[in-house]
Amino acid sequence: MRRALVDLLQRNAEHAETFQSKFDDVQDAQHPDVVTVCCSDSRVLQDHIWGNDEPGDIFTCGNIGNRVVQRTEGGDVVSGDVLYPVAHTGTETIVVVGHSGCGAVTATYDALTDGLSDAPGIEHCLDVLKPYLEPGVHELPSDLDRTGAINHLVEYNVDRQVEFLLDSDEIADDVDVVGVVYDFQDVYGGRRGEVHVVNVDGETSVETLREEYPDIASRVDRLWEY
């Protein structure tokens, strides 16, 4: 038995001790206010980035590249992971969470620019991202280095995922769709671990967002207004 699993079980025992009473109100049903779609990168602590330790508050989805798109024989649709809480638990806010230095965006960028490939399961995920990121690769400012290009594409990917949700008939018009970037690499110049709002219901202008949402004006920022 690897020590990693033993450590996990020990930490779970501590978790269970702390959370004994926290499930009292949500044992039979859930009505989370928000569904978040995060990258499954180990550095993105999906509940902790919001300071959340209350069961039932946030419906959390995770995959490489924070994708909201699911590929089917009939075409691309909103992923069931994201759609479920909106359709069945009354959730009215969706937050797409990209992050600085995203590995899935990096791999997609490499596939589009250098033709690099990966294992079939990973290729499937990248193939879903490619058509949404490819236009952004061609629009990148010419003076960017590789790191800068990838972080610009992180924002671009968040924008495309938000756009897909807004364009889908499966997401009602009264559902708020927000795009953010979680930064732990000093890309935005704030504190490590801060979330930066880059898109609200399709609006990406920093100036406009700050004017429309003064309560969060200090959290609105972008690297790229294309």
Automatic annotation (TrEMBL):
InterPro entries: Carbonic_anhydrase (IPR001765), Carbonic_anhydrase_sf (IPR036874). Zn(2+) binds at C39, H99, C102. Its cofactor is Zn(2+). Pfam families: Pro_CA. Keywords: Lyase, Metal-binding, Zinc. Gene3D superfamilies: Carbonic anhydrase (3.40.1050.10). Belongs to the beta-class carbonic anhydrase family. This is carbonic anhydrase. It comes from Halogranum rubrum.
